[in-house]
Write a structure and sequence with these properties.
By secondary structure, this protein is mainly alpha-helical. The chain is built from six helices and three strands, in the order ααβααββαα. The two termini are 16 Å apart.
Length: 120
């Protein structure tokens, strides 16, 4: 087992280990935390993040399966994505972003992401 510092918040540590499987997923989560009311299609989100649509689509599928992001098809037939309205999701996402501002914790989160990526 990898030796992690831990954030001091078991809910955030579990969130990172389960949902932040790449830096693209980190970017999506942070974007939606900063833009909690946003509802974007894949192209718009990819453009805002400066990432390829295929990469973001893969991330969105995983985050949607995990209940963090929801996708809804509008009357125009285009799927739009937004942060889950669940208050528990908002709480853990906000706490993650807050803790990631602390250098030591951010580096620990980065180590966790890299370790998870190497196992994939």
């Amino acid at each position: 087992m990898d030796d992690y510092l831990g954030s001091g918040d078991p809910g955030v540590d579990e969130f990172v280990d389960v949902h932040i499987s790449s830096f693209a997923s980190w970017d999506v989560v942070v974007y939606f935390e900063h833009n909690a009311e946003a509802s974007l299609d894949l192209g718009e989100l990819s453009k805002h993040l400066g990432r390829k649509e295929l990469e973001i689509e893969f991330v969105l599928c995983g985050l949607a399966e995990g209940g963090l992001v929801r996708g809804a098809t509008g009357p125009d037939g285009i799927a739009r994505y937004s942060l889950s309205p669940d208050p528990a999701v908002h709480k853990v996402v906000t706490r993650f972003v807050e803790l990631a501002k602390v250098r030591e914790l951010r580096l620990d989160f980065v180590r966790r992401v890299l370790a998870g990526m190497s196992r994939s």
